[in-house]
């Protein structure tokens, strides 16, 4: 046979013949990988879109309920010198009279709030109180049921909603206060529920002493509470104890929660006091906690 003369037109055929199979496999693998990445991205994008739509829908439902609650809930301020002689205001566990620098004497002058529960109870018979916290957006009716799970995923009208609602620990009695009354809610990113409780860590909140007061109104009495401690802590159950068997264990509890506080609130606390605890999530592992002591109450 004679010598074969190589022509440029044969180059594509040559490349096709000489291309290693491993290169083809690599190209195929890359296409497969990019296909998987694209598919996963579309799934994540779709799920994120669904979550955003659900979040907005739930927020709108909460906003509508809050507007309705505001419309049907008369809230009035009540001074100590009420005209009705049947209304008796009691100052709770005051410090020694000579301790005039104690902030208790300043806060005891502030008015209570009184809430008409008629329409609230008609909307939700689990309603046990109305809570208002200084320096936050917290102005909510408080509900209570037989566990601490239901209102994590249900709103005031008892429909499913990841925003949940503000609820009292099932072990507490709103009409017969125990050592420690505990109220929970989700710390929503849009500042609803207990989302604005994080404000207590801002210097602007601490510098305004008017923020150190909480109003809690129930069907039987109106109460005023003075903040004694605020802190962030990894999730635990110790501060969620509702009753203590002895003065010694209660005093240890009081010393612990006051010792944890980020700020000094110039408040004296004894085992004669009643404590109110507000608890919410700061992040996935930590909690935001506020403690206050009862300083004034008024029977209704």
Structural description of this entry:
- The chain is an alpha+beta fold and 300 residues long.
- The protein folds into two domains: 1-72; 76-299, Sortase (Sortase, Chain: A, Beta Barrel), CATH 2.40.260.10.
- The chain is 30% helix and 24% strand.
- It is built from six helices and eleven strands.
- The protein has helices at 11-18, 21-72, 104-107, 118-123, 203-207, 247-260; strands at residues 75-78, 89-91, 112-115, 127-133, 139-143, 167-168, 180-184, 213-218, 221-234, 275-281, 286-299.
- Strands 2, 4, 5, 6, 7, 8, 9, 10 and 11 form a nine-stranded mixed beta sheet that branches. The chain has a two-stranded antiparallel ribbon with strand order 1-3.
- A hairpin with a 5-residue loop joins strand 4 and strand 5.
- The longest helix is centred in the first third of the chain and has 52 residues, at 21-72.
- The radius of gyration is 30 Å and the shape is elongated.
- The model has no long low-confidence stretch (mean pLDDT 89).
């Amino acid at each position: 046979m004679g010598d074969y003369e190589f022509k440029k037109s044969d180059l594509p055929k040559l490349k096709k013949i000489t291309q290693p199979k491993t290169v083809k496999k690599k190209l195929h693998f890359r296409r497969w990988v990019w296909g998987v990445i694209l598919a996963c991205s579309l799934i994540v994008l779709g799920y994120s879109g669904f979550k955003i739509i659900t979040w907005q829908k739930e927020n709108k439902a909460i906003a509508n309920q809050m507007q309705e609650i505001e419309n049907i809930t008369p809230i009035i301020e009540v001074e100590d010198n009420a005209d009705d002689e049947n209304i008796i205001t009691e100052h709770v566990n005051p410090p020694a009279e000579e301790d005039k620098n104690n902030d208790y004497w300043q806060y005891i002058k502030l008015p209570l709030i009184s809430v008409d529960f008629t329409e609230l109870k008609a909307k939700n018979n689990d309603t046990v109180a109305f809570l208002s916290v200084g320096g936050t957006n917290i102005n909510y009716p408080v509900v209570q049921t037989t566990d601490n799970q239901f209102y994590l995923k249900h709103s005031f009208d008892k429909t499913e909603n990841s925003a949940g609602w503000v609820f009292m620990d099932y072990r507490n009695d709103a009409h017969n206060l125990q050592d420690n009354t505990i109220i929970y809610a989700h710390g929503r990113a849009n500042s609803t529920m207990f989302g604005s409780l994080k404000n207590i860590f801002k210097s602007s909140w601490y510098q305004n002493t008017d923020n150190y007061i909480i109003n809690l109104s129930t069907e039987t009495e109106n109460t005023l509470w003075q903040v004694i401690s605020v802190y962030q802590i990894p999730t635990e159950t110790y501060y969620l104890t509702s009753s203590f068997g002895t003065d010694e264990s209660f005093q240890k509890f009081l010393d612990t929660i006051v010792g944890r506080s980020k700020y000094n609130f110039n408040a004296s606390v004894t085992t004669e006091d009643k404590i109110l605890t507000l608890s919410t999530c700061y992040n996935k592992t930590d909690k935001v906690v506020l403690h206050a002591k009862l300083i004034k109450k008024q029977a209704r």
